[in-house]
C-alpha cells in the first residue's frame, strides 16, 4: 500500500473554490451518508444535545439531520457559496457575521442557533474560537486534506474534541498509483499514527 505519487500532491484553496463555482462537486451527496446512519449510535453514545463538528463541511445534508435531532452543529468550509447553498437548499434563515479572531472569516448561523458554519480555512480555527466538540463526522475531510498537511489537521482535530468524544471517519481504499486524488488514500496505519 504505497501512497505512490500522492505524497507530494497539493490542492490549493483556489482549486477547491473553483470546484464549487463550476459545480464540480461529485463529493457532495444529496442523501445522508449510510455509514452515519449505521453508526449514529456510536457517535451519540446514548447522549443527547451534543456539539458535533463537520470539518470541511461543504453543504452536507447530515448537518440539518443532526440539528433536527436536537444537536448543535458546527462546520467549517472555505467556500462561501457552499455555505449559502446549504442554508438556501434547506430553506433555513440565517445571519452572517465576521469572526473577529480570523481576518476575512465569516460565521453563518441559522436563526434557530443550532447550526453555525465558519467560512474560512480550517487551519484558522482553534478551540478558543469554536469551543470543543462531543462528536466529529469526518466524511470527506481527512481524505481531502493535502497529504503534507495531515499531521497538522490531526493535531487540530485532537485539540477540538472533548475527552469522551466520538470521531467517525470515512476513508476510501484504492491503489494510489492509479488515482492522483483527492480523495486521497490514507492507509489505516497512518490513521493510527495520526490519531493514536
From TrEMBL:
Q: Identify the GO cellular component terms for this protein.
A: cytoplasm
Q: Does the keyword Chaperone apply?
A: no
Spell out the molecular function terms from Gene Ontology.
thiopurine S-methyltransferase activity
User: PROSITE patterns recorded for this chain?
Assistant: SAM_MT_TPMT
Instruction: Name the major location.
Output: cytoplasm
Q: Which InterPro entries match?
A: SAM-dependent_MTases_sf, Thiopurine_S-MeTrfase, TPMT
Lineage, top-rank taxon, reads Eukaryota
Swiss-Prot/TrEMBL catalytic activity = S-adenosyl-L-methionine + a thiopurine = S-adenosyl-L-homocysteine + a thiopurine S-methylether
Subcellular location, record wording: Cytoplasm
Q: What is its EC number?
A: 2.1.1.67
Tell me which residues bind S-adenosyl-L-methionine. Answer: 16-27, 56, 77, 121-122, 139
Q: Which UniProt keywords apply?
A: Cytoplasm, Methyltransferase, S-adenosyl-L-methionine, Transferase
What is the top EC class of this enzyme, as a single word? transferase
GO biological process: one example: methylation
Q: Belongs to which family?
A: Belongs to the class I-like SAM-binding methyltransferase superfamily. TPMT family.
Its protein name is thiopurine S-methyltransferase
Supply the source organism for this entry.
Sylvia atricapilla (blackcap)
* Lineage start: Eukaryota, Metazoa, Chordata, Craniata, Vertebrata
Amino acid at each position: 500500500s504505497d501512497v505512490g505519487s500522492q505524497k507530494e500532491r497539493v490542492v490549493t484553496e483556489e482549486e477547491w473554490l473553483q470546484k464549487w463555482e463550476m459545480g464540480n462537486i461529485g463529493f457532495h451527496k444529496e442523501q445522508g451518508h449510510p455509514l452515519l446512519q449505521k453508526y449514529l449510535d456510536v457517535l451519540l453514545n446514548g447522549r443527547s444535545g451534543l456539539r458535533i463538528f463537520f470539518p470541511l463541511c461543504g453543504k452536507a445534508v447530515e448537518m440539518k439531520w443532526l440539528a433536527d435531532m436536537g444537536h448543535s452543529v458546527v462546520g467549517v468550509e472555505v467556500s462561501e457559496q457552499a455555505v449559502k447553498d446549504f442554508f438556501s437548499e434547506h430553506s433555513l434563515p440565517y445571519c452572517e457575521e465576521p469572526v473577529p479572531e480570523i481576518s476575512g472569516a465569516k460565521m453563518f448561523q441559522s436563526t434557530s442557533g443550532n447550526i453555525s458554519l465558519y467560512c474560512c480555512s480550517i487551519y484558522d480555527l482553534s478551540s478558543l474560537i469554536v469551543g470543543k466538540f462531543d462528536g466529529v463526522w469526518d466524511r470527506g475531510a481527512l481524505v481531502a486534506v493535502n497529504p503534507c498537511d495531515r499531521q497538522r489537521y490531526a493535531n487540530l482535530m485532537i485539540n477540538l474534541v472533548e475527552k469522551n468524544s466520538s470521531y467517525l471517519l470515512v476513508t476510501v481504499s484504492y491503489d494510489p498509483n492509479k488515482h492522483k486524488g483527492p480523495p486521497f488514500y490514507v492507509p489505516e496505519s497512518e490513521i493510527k499514527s495520526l490519531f493514536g
